[in-house]
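Below is one such record:
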Amino acid sequence: MFRHVGRRLAILNTIIVIVLIAAIGILTYGVLRRSLQQEVDQGLEERLATALSGSLSQESSGPAVRVTSDDGEGDDDHEEDDEHEDDDHDEDREIVSSGDTILIRVDDDGQIVENPRGIDLPGVPIDPGVAEALAGETDVRSVTLSDGDRMRVMTAPIFEDGEVVGAIQALRSLGEHEDQLELVRNMTVLGVVLGFIVAGPAGYFLSRRAMIPINAAFGRQRAFVADASHELRTPLTLIRANAEYARRKPDQTVSDVMPSLDNIVREVDGMSKLVSDLLMLARLDAGKLELDRSRRDLGEIAESVVESMRPLADSKEVELLLDIQPNVTAEVDRPRIEQVIRILLDNAIRHTSAGGEVEVGISARGSAREIEVRDTGAGIDPDELPLVFERFSRLDSGRAREHGGTGLGLAIARGLVEQHGGDISIDSRLGEGTVVTVRIPERSS
């Protein structure tokens, strides 16, 4: 049942990890791209402002016009010119890709007036930008040249007496920035792939680990339901058997069927106690058991419970003793603490042979208050000791059935003690007896 849940959790975990990595990568890419673009635009704007206030030759070095020789004749001269043009083209590309800012001035007809770096590449200057600038608007755009170079271009108009007389265009390669952005893209893709490869198996492993306590809890719940069903089925079967026995002999008197009626009443009482215990455990599990805590004398509470349990002890010929330190108080819910002591006393008395002793001790140990119930019974096998607080745990099921036990008492006692913020422990030795210790911390005011 929970295996499919684990798989779905693993898939969901993988999707979340991948989406998270992709979102971080996209966000990083967007922020970096915007930051780099602002950096480039700011640099171009500053260069344009400086150029507009002076001559372009003051901004860049290099010949304004590239001069080529054309006084030779023949194929050799043409080959030399071609090689020279190729070298010039490569040089221009190097200048463009270097990241330097290139400035070009044009007149109001769009013709190049100044070209300090002597750049001669197809598409430079950028005509649409020049057209916008000659119309009086500063133009900013990113373009891709025919050879694949990405450029950021800013073109500003030149005014003279309020009229546009030309434009200055500043260009800067985006190659370095594109490399940085590509690195972020590649890292994002790599992160997504690694997220899929790692998060999938890791999520499945972790989901299986996370499902272990859930599976265990579900298993305990199923066992609990099965045990509860069994506990209810047994008395119901006995009630039905006694009722059918009485019904088969309608001519009998009430006194004749009284044993059957007594059995029915006894089983109903047992079922009522079982249902009450189940409801108590359900409230404890849900955390809906509210405590009415006030400062109480634990010795006085123990005496009251011991006196109420004395008839049972007398019927078993078990001696009840008290060992109470005076003025031991704690903030507790009295009915619930009485219930805890009663459960422990009931178990101790029922499992102590005639002539044995059961003693209740109340003491203060540092900041804790201790309630001890000691008996001289047969003790508990060490292998079974860890199971005593489990629900429907009956270390002696025959005697538990005989005495009407449900196997829920110690589980309820532990739950009530934990509700008080305390703990309960048990120490037992075969043939010597058992000691159950309840520790309730003193609440700081």
User: Anything to note?
Assistant: The first strand starts at residue 101 and ends at 107. Residues 57-81, 397-403 have pLDDT under 50 and may be disordered.
